[in-house]
Amino acid sequence: MKKESTDLIELIGEFLVSGHSQVVAKTTREAEPIEIEEKRIVFNFETEQVIYDACQHMADKQSAELLYNILKLHLKSKDVMAQRDENCLSTVTNHELKNILSSAQLSLEMLNTYDFEREDRSRLLIQAFEAVSQSVSLFDEMIMIEKLQHQQRNKNITIEMVDVVPIVEAVIETLSPNIASKNLTVSLHDKTEGTFINASAFWVERALFNLISNAVKYNEDNGTLTIDMINEKKAIVIHVHDSGVGIETSEQGSVLEKFQTTDATQNQGTGVGLALVKAIADAHTGALDFESVHGEGSTFSITFPKKIANKQIRHPLAVMNAASILLLVGLSYFFPVIPTFDTVETVGEYESIKLEDGSRIKIQKGDDYSFWHLQNLTGSKAYMRLTLDGGKAEADLRGSKVNFVTPTLSFVNLGTELAFEQQQGRSTVSVYKGEVQAEKIHLGKGEGLVSSENGIEVTELLNAPYGIVFEADENGSVSLHFDAVEGAETYHVVLAKDEDFTEAISIQERSKRAYLFSIKEDGYYYVKIAAIDKNGIMGFANTGVIKSTYNLKQGVLLRKNGQYDEADTFFKKSEKSFEKKDYEPYSEMAFNSYLQGNFAQAVRIYEEALAINETEEDQINLARSYYYLKAYDKAVFIYETLLQDDGENEKAMWGLAEVYIATKEYRKAKKTLKSLFDLNPDYPLAYYDMARVMFLTKHKKEGFSYIDKALLSSREHDPFEIANRAVDADDPEALKAFFIDNIYFHTQGQRAYIEQEVALMLKKAFSEN
């Protein structure tokens, strides 16, 4: 028959070595929370007083405050549970608080206060250690339940094809020391026929570990452990049979509930492990069943369907009783036991964990890892742990302290930036900033280590690669080259969409120094290159920026063929990809509108381009668009501003002269053009405009002479612009038709012919006037 648990109030009385304890109604409203008078201690609460008389061990102030908080939680939980389940508090609160707080705290207090013989000190230390170990196991299981529920709620449980056989074998290998200590005979029977289940490998491993470790823990010495893995019609069933203590019939109804332990196991278990296994089975629309005969052993059977159907799983913590919740709250004042769920993003090739202080840990997608982040209630204490069983990870930590664990190494960061890897029994660490404490080894900036069965070797990190060169073609291919690094065996190259390399789109590791990427989406891309030495330790990295303009180039090619609408589609794709971080898409779209004569639209888009980057070319084209819209004052303002920055800006001088001609300010136009001739005697457009000024001011002979000079100076100038400027004059319609026929629909191979014909037509047109 199960023994009655000692009430917590009496237990504290034992610690104080009190001759008498009582709980009475509070008589005065105003009173100090704790009153100590000689050998009497009074704890005052809202409506009650807890009084201890004739105390032989008077606790110090800090211990008295701890006892006060424990009693406060205890009394409050009694009030909450009184109407629901009178036995729940004694079953849960006394069991857990006695082991976690009382056995550990009071044992340590007594060790600190009294002088004991060696045998008694050892007994008290063992008692405290076992209680703390049990509490750690308890909260590990509770955190796992919360993590499972969190993943279900956010629908981010990683589902994959899972083979249960190697998982069972790995668990047996992990538990081999425990199995050997009890001299158990283990039998594995694989009848899965190579069939996989559709499940989360992480949670399947956790469920099987709990079941098998229970079968080992509660087995008899020289007993048997049998595991049968069976392929049924729609599911894989794993039966775990032990020859241990078994479960009494009266206790079997509640064994899968939280905090429920049997009479035979209450001093060894937390009562949460099987509840977690059941939650995992439910999450996979499976089942957990068991059969047990007291004194003969138990068989637990977990079923995983081959295909998962959608099912709404009840929040695992929703069934927690008030006492256990209060227990968690009480402990959370002193220990980091409250789970904190940091933002986890799966972006590109990484799973990225973002912490509150801006720190970030990145793990290559598909690698085997787990992450815990616990805090106490006030947030003053935190515990973070990343376990990496295989793969690569990087960390940029801005104040956060993380315990990193691999199967062959454990270390903690004392600084910020590092990288590490776990592969095939070997761990490597690289420290880029700050420091790392790995076991008894201290690593500083620029150092790395490799840990394997041969021990730990510390070395200097390789230098970063330099001489990075990118070459892109119009088909979207980008080639990358860089200089060799002495001592490098391979190179780790990451291509990402962001400067933090979180949105990685390609991760490659090769011995060659030439890489090829296909980038058919415009924007800025970032590349990071690090050399890896013979031990697999990654050295310092160098970074570069690639500007991809695939869509932009496609649009330019289409525009050259006169396909303006199609070109505009590609320019808009480019603009969307750059997200207003680059002016070129706007510049090309504006020029597209300009060539089609849509000058109002060109003005609007050029202004967007200039808001990002004030290039001279776009300012000239904006002014020219204003010119065609007859917004001459705005065009003059742009030209004069450019000339203030550079008094020898030829394009601005020529554009200003054009405005003066349009506004009939011929004297200013003539003066500006002469200044342009002084700078560049071979500027052909200036000759054409001077010819226009002469014709418009009735100086025809001088006009023809300037046209002849234009012919001699125009061999190296763009015939498109020459013809365009000629059409701006008061010319016959025939000349405009000639411009359309010979410029837009002929190849550029006829450059000299077009220049000559335009000049001759212009001369002929004016001689006939």
Give a structural overview.
The protein is α+β, with helices and mostly antiparallel strands and 769 residues long. 42% of the residues lie in helices and 25% in strands. The strands form six sheets. Strands 12, 13, 14, 15, 16, 17, 18, 19, 20, 21, 22, 23, 24 and 25 form a 14-stranded mixed β-sheet that branches. α4 (118-153) packs parallel to α8. The longest helix has 36 residues, at 118-153. The radius of gyration is 41 Å and the shape is elongated. It starts with 7 loop residues before the first helix and ends with a helix. The model is unreliable at 1-5, 80-102, 258-270, 309-326 and 731-754 (pLDDT under 50).
List the helices and strands and how they pair.
Layout: H1 8-16, E1 20-25, E2 34-37, E3 40-44, E4 48-53, H2 61-81, H3 86-113, H4 118-153, E5 160-162, H5 164-174, H6 176-182, E6 185-191, E7 197-199, H7 201-217, E8 224-231, E9 235-242, H8 273-283, E10 287-293, E11 297-305, H9 322-332, E12 338-339, E13 343-347, E14 350-354, E15 360-364, E16 368-375, E17 382-396, E18 403-406, E19 409-413, E20 417-423, E21 426-431, E22 436-438, E23 441-443, E24 447-452, E25 455-460, E26 469-472, E27 477-481, E28 490-496, E29 504-510, E30 514-518, E31 523-532, E32 538-548, H10 550-560, H11 564-578, H12 584-595, H13 599-612, H14 616-628, H15 632-645, H16 650-662, H17 666-679, H18 684-696, H19 700-713, H20 719-727, H21 733-744, H22 751-768
